[in-house]
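**Entry details**
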Amino acid sequence: MSSASHASPAARIESVQNIPVVVMTGPLDTGSIPAFDAQVASLLTEPHRRILMDLEAVTFISSLGLRSLLRLIKHAAASGGRAALFAVPAPILEVIEMTGFSSLVDLYPDRASALSSSIDAAAR
């Protein structure tokens, strides 16, 4: 097993007009999930009606990775909103659809679409 997943952070959090954007990189698996969960823990301490997740650089997602995404999805729902995924690579999208996650989140092709929709919704 490679330690490449530990070479860089599994996630970083950006804020765009008060909307958290979680930018993920590499595999979301047993090796990276503890760091990922620690990196996003701050998001779970206050309500966020919208959480955007950038999966463009995700190379693999395990069941543990899905569980961590689900935690963010449920947090947005509990805050009265909905999470969104964008720029999801085809193999990861297939997993998202097969597991039923696609019914729990909004899916967008790219960052601009996800942000535009989220900013419009926040303005209403």
Summary: The domain at 25-123 is CATH 3.30.750.24 (Transcription Regulator spoIIAA). Helices lie at 33-40, 63-78, 90-98, 111-123.
